Amino acid sequence: METAKLEHSVAALLPQQDKEEAVNILRAAAAAPARADENMLLEQLFPELDSSTAQELEKIREKLRKEISSIVLNPGASKERLQKLRAEMTAEQVDGFIIPLNDEFHGEAAPAAAERLKWLTGFTGSAGVAAVLKDKAAIFVDGRYTLQVQNEVDTSLFTPRHVSEEPMSAWLAENMSAGETLAVDPWLHTENNMAALKKTTTSIGVELTSVPENLIDRVWEDRPLAPLALVQPQEERFSGESSASKRNRIAAKLAEKKTDAIIHTLPDVVAWLLNLRGADLPCTPFALGFAITHQDATVDLFMDEIKFAPTMREHLGNMIRLHAPEEFEQALQSLSGKKVQIDPAVTSQYIVDQLIKAKAEISRAEDLCLLPKATKNAIEVEGSRRAHIRDGAAVAKFLHWMSVNAPVGTVDELSAEAKLRSFRESGENFRDLSFNTISGAGPNGAIVHYRASEASNRPLEPGSLYLVDSGAQYLDGTTDITRTIAIGEPSAEMRNRFTLVLKGHIALATAIFPKGTTGSQLDTLARAPLWSAGLDYDHGTGHGVGSYLSVHEGPQRISKAPSAVALVPGMIISNEPGYYKTGAYGIRIENLVTVQERPQPEGAERVTYGFETLTFAPIDKTLIEKNLLTDSEIAWLNSYHFEVREKLEPQVEGETADWLRQATAPL
Ligand code: ZN
Ligand code: ZN
After folding, report:
1. Which alpha helices (DSSP H) does 153-190 contain, by range?
2. What are φ and ψ of residue 182, in 5° steps?
3. 375-505+575-663 and 232-345 share a CATH fold
4. Which residues have their alpha-adjacent CB atom under 5 A from ion ligand 2?
5. Residue 8: its pLDDT value, please?
6. Is the pLDDT assigned to residue 313 strictly greater than 90?
7. What is the distance in A from the centroid of ligand 1 to the CA of 470?
8. Which CATH homologous superfamily contains domain 232-345?
């Protein structure tokens, strides 16, 4: 929408407002994702609105939102965009430029304004990086995206390469010569990442240099604004601990480490520490902004004030100083001579450079908030239990709906996904999904990070398996559940594999382990039944999950990769073994669990922990080969299903309740 036209319609709707400001608000609001409570922002910024004007503004915002996606993703423009970028490289006198997928927060998602890789290449995957030289360019993706990249990207402009088998370092060595200059935007590379790049460039005699402004931003004329979404307090009835108490805990650790300040760059850390939630990104209630905690337990927070709900000002109190994002740089410089902690794995080189310039003493370690954030308090665990019952009811309604509709042949991946979402949306405290639903029929179920599209959409056919991995964000908790169901009659092989996966799931769910045990020590339990059949799966078994925060959080995990982080009571983690037969079907059974201390048996010498399962939804019994289960495994399944019924029955009615009773009847 042209600015003049937009200003004209806004002026007609809001004659009292500053036109330019109102247009910017709408543009920025459109750069934030759609969400259940998003209209609160416009209501707050334009308080006099009548409902018809409000609806008109919402329509404009929707229109702008659609425009943003078509601006960002326009593969047909890649050639022209690449030419413009190369002209900037020439102007800057550099021979190469690197375009990572991430933004300056280095998280799993980035707002539209930071989707530079997508803008340039048309690649829509969740991991990747491009390198552009004067007459060559390449895009590096992992095994999940080697086919997708061929379909999405003009390969005459960008050579697709496998990120680990044909890494960027080798490509740079092949195509750059000594004496040339490779440029980066230091905001988009962490200190660790920059060190690795430096190693590569040094070995080939290339100079690595930082450009003061991203070269793409210079040529991206209609670049979207930073997202504008409301920042709201996360009430103590959900967080279970005041921000003051959390800040005091972190300040005490700083004092212990004789460190003056710590810089928080992770949005979920900032949200946890200050008990706030935003809506800048899809599926995660983040408000993007940096923060600095000082040894006196005060915090400097860098976020646009316009985003704050009136209740937030009071909520922040006088120990948290709110600054405009542009003031961050000045704040870094004012740390001159201080001892400052950063995490080199997630902190931009730009921030490190400022600290070095200010002659601050840098201490490198993982953010002090990570472990306390991962270790949920009793109120957060209780909130998660409640959220899971609501979520389980939505999943049960969906599974019942599927049992009626899928065998008739009227359901496909996209319609199933939409139906499941609609059941969740009606739940109390629902805000958003916690990630893009993986709705995979038949062979698509074997693609671990599958996302159904119009092009890939498959009908659910008799004799196939359907895998659905999904979750939601509720004010009181984040959920993540996978169920695999048989459509019609499953094959003997499908039943065998499903039962092996279930055995692994039960082994982990019932594990009892001494204090100090890490997730990597437990990983084998979930795989052993598959291993003994000569099978395995190529993903981790469990990831940490936040409390109305990120669905993937550290530092704990359950995987083959070594982990030094012991599991402690209060941690929430997934239990998700699977089995995938390429081109045929996929199986995964995922519940979230929380670590809890076990009662000490007579004569016990060690404190022991186990898991409490939080997720409640039926597991498809038609896929179970009963004679492969031991008596205690059957007992676990029956008691799990008994609990599923107890918890979900009050939430469902009529035919769904009848179905639930049958789906949870003892094996
Ligand atoms: Zn999942
Ligand atoms: Zn998961």
Report:
1. 168-175
2. -110, 130
3. no
4. 480, 574
5. 87
6. no
7. 6
8. Creatinase/prolidase N-terminal domain (3.40.350.10)
